[in-house]
Write a structure and sequence with these properties.
5 helices; single chain; five-stranded mixed beta sheet; Collagenase (Catalytic Domain); 177 residues; binds zinc ion; alpha/beta
């Protein structure tokens, strides 16, 4: 079975960016990508202390409502995300699991091409984690960790040779089952 990925807009998300992310995920993973029905803004994950949304809580919630179809789920939110011990995160994923989330908040840019490219990189990065990939030292590999938006702009939307080999093996295993 080829990999399949479902994008879930969490709140009101520009459909152009969702389409771009979908196309990028199809290219990166050879996956069938669908854009699911949007869910309300995840108020349950909002922290009034930091005025951000908790990435781990959203991932956990998406995981509890995730069906066992084997598809990956990528939540997309317009608001800023945080995780314990960080000021913000661009996204979060279950490593080797099925659920991830990305925030568009810090990716926004007047140049739509740059904005879409950033969203594509962060989406591929987080879904890469769900296929079991960790962070990569190669700063142009899409699996390089982004501390700042500059890191995101430096990295490409491609996997380095090492990450690509691991990923292709994991995808092939999934297709064989
Ligand atoms: Zn990461
Ligand atoms: Zn890599």
């Amino acid at each position: 079975m080829p990999a399949s990925i479902r994008i879930i807009p969490l709140g009101d998300i520009d459909s152009d960016v969702l389409d771009e992310v979908g196309a990028a995920l199809t290219r990166a993973f050879g996956a069938a990508v669908t854009i699911g029905e949007s869910q309300p803004t995840p108020k349950y994950a909002f922290s009034p202390y930091v005025h951000q949304f908790s990435a781990p809580i959203i991932v956990h919630k998406l995981a509890t409502t995730h069906d066992a179809s084997g598809a990956k789920t990528l939540g997309v939110i317009a608001f800023d995300l945080f995780a314990p011990q960080t000021n913000y995160v661009f996204g979060e994923a279950q490593v080797g699991g099925e659920v991830a989330v990305i925030s568009l908040y810090r990716l926004l840019e007047l140049d739509r091409h740059v904005y879409f490219e950033r969203a594509a990189k962060e989406a591929i990065h987080e879904i890469g984690h769900t296929f079991g990939l960790g962070h990569c030292d190669d700063d142009v590999c899409v699996m390089h960790f982004s501390h700042t938006i500059e890191d995101t702009d430096i990295k490409t939307s491609e996997f380095c040779t090492t990450c690509r080999v691991i990923l292709d093996r994991v995808i092939a295993l999934g297709e064989a089952t």
